[in-house]
Amino acid sequence: MIICINKKMKKPNYMADFMTNPFNLSFPEIEERSRRIRKNIIRMNSRAGAGHTGADLSETDILATLYFHILRYRVDDLNNSDRDRFILSKGHGVGGYYCTLAEAGILNESLLDDYLKKDSHTPGHPVRQKTPGIEFNTGALGHGFSVSVGLALAAKKSRRDYITYVLLGDGELEEGSNWEAAMSAAHFKLDNLVAIVDRNGLQLGDRTEDIMSLEPLSDKFKSFGFEVTAANGNNPEELAMAIKSTLTRSGKPHVIIANTIKGKGVSFIEDKPKWHHKVPVGDEVYSAIKELGKK
Amino acid sequence: MKEEIRDSFVKELQEIKKSNDQLIVLVSDSTSTCRINPFLLENPDSVVNVGIAEQNMIGIAAGLSLGGFIPVTANAACFLLGRSNEQVKVDICYAQTNVKLVGLNPGFAYGSLGPTHHSLDDISTILAFGGIDIFVPSDPEETRQITKYAINKDGPVYIRLDSFSAENIHGDSYSFQPGKSVVLREGADITLIALGTMIHEVLAAEEELKKTGIQADILSVPSIRPLDPEVIIRSLKKTGSVITLEEHSTHGGLGSIVGDIILENQLTCGIKKIGVPAGEFAEASPRSDLKEYYNLHKEGIIKSTLDFLNR
User: Fold this and answer.
1) pLDDT tens digit string along A218-270?
2) What structural domains and CATH numbers belong to chain B?
3) Phi and psi (nearest 5°) for A193?
4) Which of A81, A140, A150 sits opposite B63 (nearest CB)?
5) pLDDT tens-digit map of B247-306
6) Which helix (H) or strand (E) holds B216?
7) Cβ-contact A172, A90 below 8 angstroms
8) Burial of residue A281, with CB atoms counted within 10 A of its CB: 0-12 exposed, 13-18 middle, 19 or more buried
9) CB-based contact A152 B66, cutoff 8 Å
10) Crossing angle, helix A27-48 and helix A283-293, to 10 degrees?
């Protein structure tokens, strides 16, 4: 594993015997991290000439909230068995994932330059054998939820208190395997499992509701036995409040419907289906970075 | 004494569980298929039944392995590699999770239930995936040894496990070696190579073949991957002709593997592949009738051998 903490990073703080979030940043600080992550996404994708820009920008605030406020882990001990687990089921959002890991000092920022290059540590979908901090290989949709059920079940069976978080794309929920996972999460009473749906309303081809209706999504999860909370997925404070509300142990698994804007932060990318896997070029890069530079 | 090799598998799991608390078994409503009840009674918290949801079973197994367990999945081979094909490829093989997949009742073991339940493509499918070992036991002792090896090994394993009552065909000193094929009889006229429990039919045919003056080299291939071809090459060089026998498509199974060995080593060796011909489904018929139809029974093996050698 390659672990390199960026020198410019604010160093993580660890309490001696407890697994905590190593940063525990305030919400304005998380928003600032999100802006930096988004700029890196724009730079990285335009440099690579490929990537899922819309998906990366959609999930940024969710990832920043998790890595800088919620997840309990140690940057210097990524395999600690008591760490919270995070699975990016929507594996095509790997660009946002890498940039978040780099921002947290888990991934050397120079590896972002190698995105999509031959034999790089930053390939086009997450690979746990290749990249520090990546928990699981995803990219084929509809896998991460079941894997997360297994992780949460392992915690229950071995009486450990780590929490498993999984980020699902909304279009991804069209894969039936997710509903097998949902059924089993409720059956096994996995209240230590938090599924977050990046509900931006778009998928590769068009709007989710035009291609295959997901609504009423909350009711679907409720009927499967989940505790469901809706939140603005582009607002770290609201999102963090929603996630913290899941820490109660009710015997039910949790879903956060994180309402997001695909392409968030760059006006000409926002909410446009064509930006699912389009990358900025030329003046678009300049415009995007300039816009993200605004407070 | 005969023993159902699924029972041999479960007995070994019971034994391993005594000293390995991380072992956990997953079934997809396939409790009876894998005859797991003796293990379940002793270890009720170590069997996870996910219901009829094979994709979910494989994903959960991968997650349990990330959480420190050694998951063993046990369900019908047809559903394992049919329904959860992508989960096996990605969650197990690509992600290199420490999961052991046991595909039960392969070939046309389900006979009259038909092609929905036949598994004639599991070897060819999983051979095309990277990063997973493939074992096919043929008798109770070999089943126990392969089960033990698979669980002790760190990494993905597929075991093709038949529903078959058999006596041990290996001697008391037999020790399963990954990669090694096993010479069960020695002869110079022809090589007969069988997959899994098919070896019992070949051994049954041997006595009759002897009476016709044919001495056969008889090989079993319990380790499909890894596979050291040395034992097979030595036999093919000696006999110059080989018949492969398998309850599997002749495309991508044992026959294809032996054919590749002949080609890659530039051997002068005739080959006849006996199985379900590529591009065909086996009909919904009793297993014994299907074995007879495809010459995968004693009489068929004798006839095929005589025909192949122009006797």
Assistant:
1) 999 999 999 999 999 999 999 999 999 998 888 999 999 999 999 999 999 99
2) 3-166 (3.40.50.970), 182-308 (3.40.50.920)
3) -120, 125
4) A150
5) 999 999 999 999 999 999 999 999 999 999 999 999 999 999 999 999 999 999 999 999
6) strand B216-220
7) yes
8) exposed
9) no
10) 170
